[in-house]
Design goal:
This protein is α+β, with helices and mostly antiparallel strands and 590 residues long. It has one domain: Glutamine Phosphoribosylpyrophosphate, subunit 1, domain 1, CATH 3.60.20. It has 18 helices and 20 strands. Strands 1, 2, 3, 6, 7, 8, 9, 10, 13, 14, 18, 19 and 20 form a 13-stranded antiparallel β-sheet that branches. Helix 2 packs antiparallel against helix 3, helix 2 packs antiparallel against helix 6 and helix 12 crosses helix 13. The longest helix has 18 residues. The structure holds glycine.
Length: 590
């Protein structure tokens, strides 16, 4: 079988082109500067943002553990990355508890209000649903923080919110990414009086280099710390959120058709975060743990890895094909497990992986790939390819964010946080400084009979978030995750393959150019990927298109950790995507 295998020569060139020299990124004691790579001891963190990384580091230095620091980092991202994260959103934590040596997950996914039916989005243009009260899901983040801290943390919510309150009050320096994201959202932000007042001061996006304060959010966090989650889940903050969803503060004269939402205070009262078992597969002797449904992240990354493992060799051609097949199965079978019978064990089984791997030949398979039959009965002969039609995928943007933290005890958190679209619904709750999510646009709009991801009362929309932890002999080796809608899955998969199969270091694996095949007619790929690998892969029948959603030509913005042995940890963020991320360690010395 012909395969594009990345040669060691290719890796040297790639590293030289795209990864920073290791020494240049190493953290210097006492100076928390923005750098994509840091190595050291006693705890480490990586986020897309220096202030958020510092917030998590502060909590680690105060004696908090990885869960405390993860919540602190997430709350800080709600200030400095408010278009991707916030208390009115949701997310998933995959957590390694060093004491029990077990991996668990905390699901803070938003839910549909009880009044939502399977046809709620039918006939509504996607762009119209994006900026609406209808798409606002019942927020999960605060219940998730509460559950995570009660089960695994050592600090109170009030304590871990302090660094974020500090940033919100004193302000942070506006960077190009924040400015650009505001600019991209300016037209819809301008249509809501509360959003324009906060994010378009003087009618314009804040200048790069200016200091941005969110005193409303500081007050909201402070009051949340005092009153606790019930203030949101049925109390005054909840009532204000419901009032905003039902009657968004549309600017007089705005012509946008803003659909109102269905959320009631009773939906907030009914919300529960859930601790769930992770997905788990062994890949080349390592244990790979991910987020189980309602996210498709864990199952799709894991299925693709198992398909790759079933092949004689894994190169970029096989990476694209395995991803194509895993996405066909994700789309057919994965939804909220409270509503859908997801055949998770079979999707991750060796038998199913072999049956799927059998379809991968020397050339790209025709589009679209049909879903397989994860029914427990697998044939030794390759099943005939079936013809199917699949609807076009919704637009995938750079939404969401991911952080990783580890502490001195060896606990590890990989945490994806989201309000869905960059800028969520575009609607700020008046006087509270928080943007409402538009997570319910992650449902299939339909009509799509039998689709596992149609809306239903109380249902969690299928996610692609894929916070991932890899153990070697029961101890952490890697933690990794990324933003990017459905491209999250391929970014995580590609980083794992880069690191585990292609011999790259973690910083090289994160920096390397990306391609994302999601059972789509062409593969989305960064121009650097097309330039470097396009000719060989095009000869095998692959076609490529660069991503067009701003920031153009970027897929993902990953963060990761590698455990180097003897307590030494390498924290890794992006060197350039989304303006580059921030990796920090508690100490450079033992
Ligand atoms: N809203 C992004 C995701 O859940 O995948």
């Amino acid at each position: 079988m012909r395969s594009v295998v990345v040669t060691s020569l290719g890796l040297v060139t790639l590293a030289g082109l795209l990864a920073p020299p290791a020494e240049a990124g190493v953290h210097r004691p006492g100076k928390e500067i923005k750098q994509p790579v840091a190595e050291g001891y006693g705890g480490a963190v990586a986020t897309v943002d220096l202030d958020a990384s510092k917030a998590a580091l502060t909590v680690l230095r105060q004696g908090g553990n990885a869960m405390d620091a993860a919540v602190a980092g997430a709350a800080a991202l709600g200030v400095t990355e408010p278009y991707s994260a916030g208390l009115a959103g949701g997310g998933f934590i995959v957590y390694y508890d060093a004491r029990t040596r077990k991996v668990t997950t905390i699901d803070g996914r938003e839910t549909a209000p009880r009044a939502m039916t399977s046809t709620a989005f039918e006939g509504i243009p996607f762009d119209e649903a994006v900026t609406s009260g209808l798409s606002v899901g019942v927020p999960g983040s605060v219940a998730q923080w509460d559950l995570a801290l009660r089960r695994y943390g050592t600090m109170s919510l009030r304590q871990v919110l302090r660094p974020a309150i500090d940033i919100a009050e004193k302000g942070f320096v506006v960077d190009q990414t924040f400015h650009d994201q505001t600019e991209q959202n300016a037209a819809r932000f301008a249509d809501f009086t509360s959003t324009a007042a906060l994010y378009l001061p003087g009618g314009r996006p804040p200048r790069v280099g200016s200091v941005f304060r969110n005193r409303d959010l500081a007050r909201t966090y402070r009051e949340l710390g005092i009153r606790g989650p019930a203030w949101l889940y049925g109390g005054e903050l909840g009532r204000e959120i419901v009032a905003t969803v039902k009657k968004p503060p549309v600017r007089p004269g705005a012509t946008r058709n803003v659909r109102t939402g269905l959320m009631e205070v009773s939906d907030l009262k009914a919300y529960r975060a859930v601790e769930r078992p992770p997905t788990k597969v062994t890949y080349k002797g390592l244990d790979v743990y991910g987020m189980a449904p309602p996210s498709s992240g864990g199952s799709t990354v894991a299925e693709a890895l198992k398909i790759l493992e079933a092949l004689p060799q894994a190169g970029l051609h096989e990476y694209l094909e395995a991803s194509r097949l895993a996405f066909a199965d994700r789309n057919a079978y994965v939804g909220d497990p409270a509503y859908v019978d997801v055949p998770l064990d079979q999707l991750l089984s060796d038998g199913f992986a072999k049956e799927r791997a059998c379809l991968i030949g020397p050339r790209a398979m025709p589009h679209p790939a049909a879903p397989g039959s994860p029914d427990g009965s697998y044939s030794a002969t390759c099943p005939a390819a079936r013809e199917v039609s699949v609807p076009p995928e919704k637009k995938e943007g750079p939404e969401t964010t991911h952080l990783v933290v580890t502490d001195r005890w060896g606990d590890v958190a990989a945490y994806n946080i989201t309000i869905e679209q960059t800028g969520g619904s575009g609607i700020v709750v008046p006087g509270r400084g928080i943007l409402l999510n538009n997570e319910l646009t992650d449902f299939t709009f339909g009509p799509a009979p039998g689709d596992p991801n149609l809306p239903a009362p109380g249902k969690r929309p299928r996610s692609s978030m894929a916070p991932t932890i890899v153990l070697k002999d029961g101890r952490p080796l890697l933690a990794v995750g990324s933003p990017g809608g459905a491209t999250i899955i391929t970014t995580v998969l590609q980083i794992l393959v880069n690191r585990l199969d292609f011999g790259m270091s973690l910083p090289e694996a994160v920096a390397a150019p990306r391609a994302s095949q999601r059972n789509t007619p062409t593969t989305q790929a960064e121009q650097a990927f097309i330039d470097r690998y396009g000719p060989e892969l095009t000869a095998l029948g692959h076609t490529f298109t660069p991503p067009t959603t701003p920031p153009v030509d970027e897929i993902g913005a990953a963060t990761g950790l590698e455990f180097l042995g003897n307590g030494r940890v390498q924290a890794v963020a992006e060197p350039t995507r989304r303006g580059g991320g921030s990796a920090l360690v508690v100490s450079t010395h033992r």
